Amino acid sequence: PTGxxxxxxxxxxxxxELLKRIDIGLTTGIVAVFISFLALIVAWNQTRLASDTxxxxxxxxxxxxxxxxxxxxxxxxxxxxxNVGVGVADIYSLRTLKDGEPFAxxxxxxxSVMSPxxxxxxxxxDGEAVNYxxxxxxxxxxxxxxxxxxxxxxxxxLDGSLGEPMAGVDVxxxxxxxxxxxxxxxxxxxxxxxxxxxxxTGDVPVDAFADYRAARLSxxxxxx
Length: 224
Known about the structure:
With about 220 residues, the protein is α+β, with helices and mostly antiparallel strands. It contains five helices and eleven strands; from the N terminus they run αββββααβββαββββα. Strand 3 (about 90-100) and strand 4 (about 100) form a beta hairpin.
C-alpha cells in the first residue's frame, strides 16, 4: 500500500563510510609524503655536511707577502707565497699590479719597488716556478739582490725620504683546491681570500714572474 515504509537502509550510509575511508587514506598519504620529505632534507643535509667536511680537510689558504728582507749581510727584495692551509693549493695565476692595473713589464715593476740607483745595482735571482704549493710550504717566485755599494744606502728609499716606497704595488694570486673551489688574494687587501667561480684557467697558467724570467733570458735584438 501507498506510504508503507520499506526495510532498505538510507542511501546516504554507504556514502558516509566511503568518504570516511577516503579521508583516512588521504591523511595517511599526506603524512607519508611529509615524512619522506623530512627524510630527504635530512639526507641532503648529511650529504652537504660530509661534502663541507671533506672540503675543509683539504682547504688551502695562500698568504702573499712582498718587501725587503735581510739575509746575512745581503739585502733582498722578494715576493713570497705561503700556504698556511691544510690542503694543496693549485696556483693558476700570479699578477703584479700598480694601483690595481697590471704592470707593462719587469722594468716598470722594478721602478715601482726600488729607487733608480737601487735598480742599477740590483740583480735578479732566479725565483721558483709556481704550480702546486703543499700545505705549510712557501715559495719565492721573485727575488732581487741589492748589491753593494748601494746596499748600505737603501734606507734612503725604505724610510720614505725618496717618496713612499712600493706605493700601490700589489701581487694578486688566484688558486684552487683539489675540489676546484677557487679564491683570489692580494697582498694589499690584508683580508681573507675571496671566493671566485674560477681562475679563468687555461692550458698555461698566468705567471707574471715566469714572464719576467723568460724576457730576461730571451736573446736581445741589437740590430740598429
